[in-house]
Please model this.
Amino acid sequence: MGAGQGAAVVADVGSSGPAAAVAAGDGALTYPIPPQALASFCARLGHAFTDPHLLGRSLTHRSWCAEHAGFASNERLEFLGDSVLGVIVTDEIYHRHPDAGEGQLSRIRASVVCAPALAEMAVELGLGEVLLLGKGEAASGGRERPSILADAMEAVIGAVYLDGGPDAAGHLVRRLVAPRLADAGSPDHKSRLHELVAQQHDRQIRYDIAEDGPEHDKTFQAVVLLDEEPLGIGHGRSKKQAEQAAAQEAWLALDRRRGDAPAREESDG
Model:
């Protein structure tokens, strides 16, 4: 979405107050979001809105509405987006895992359709930068609050669904959840590592995480430290992916030290 289209959503940030919140002519609401930030967000989102007011509403928190008459919050779009997300993810995992039972499919879906995962997606898109929040909510760190980010992420998905239909929503959701679905189908190396270390009393594990790249295209490196000794390094497109890779390497290293090399390592497939 270009800056020109974004201008339909944006009011002059320097003019605040009820008069600035109403566009001249048709009386449609405008949303005081910095044009450059909005254009950058839409580029990361990968959807050009035909109805930019849907985008504006999806970014409007109820705390903003309490301070600005005439605005509606993003809660209805959040409700819709929650259902859209669930259907798309369910369809995706059903076809990705043709031999999985209902219980396994439910666990995979729960790992993706949850507030922490949604908040991570919102951070990757830089959604917090363009949220409309009340003064108190903004001052108390609302742009980084996981619950607010997760709800807004669902609202944006709902707005994309209404604006572009199922295909547009499906493209967005599948792009956002693909790395997380790959993680969900992999062995839980972190649990295996912690079980192994638990057999050795008074030993401590922690993870050091480093990240690289722009907000919308980050890569992560995780280092597992056992009693402050580096034991495994892993890389991935998400923190979870990097931690799992590092834990796998650390588990193998510990197992070799014990002289019990596994006959066959589990497949990640």
In short: Residues 146-184 form the longest helix (39 residues). Residues 75 and 148 are 11 Å apart (CA to CA).
